[in-house]
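HUMAN: Forgive my ignorance: could you write out one protein's sequence and backbone structure tokens?

ASSISTANT:
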Amino acid sequence: MDRREFEQLYIDLFPGLYRLAQSIVHHPADAQDAVQQSAVSAWAAADRI
């Protein structure tokens, strides 16, 4: 998966991931941070996934 594909996947999945994170942390900014950090971690591990 190249960077453009990953970015599109992130854009497509963000709304659902954000809703899930917000249901867990109950704070919009923390939910957004959690989703973004998980995306950064996933990209860093992309060669191992």
About this structure: The chain is about 80% helix and 0% strand.
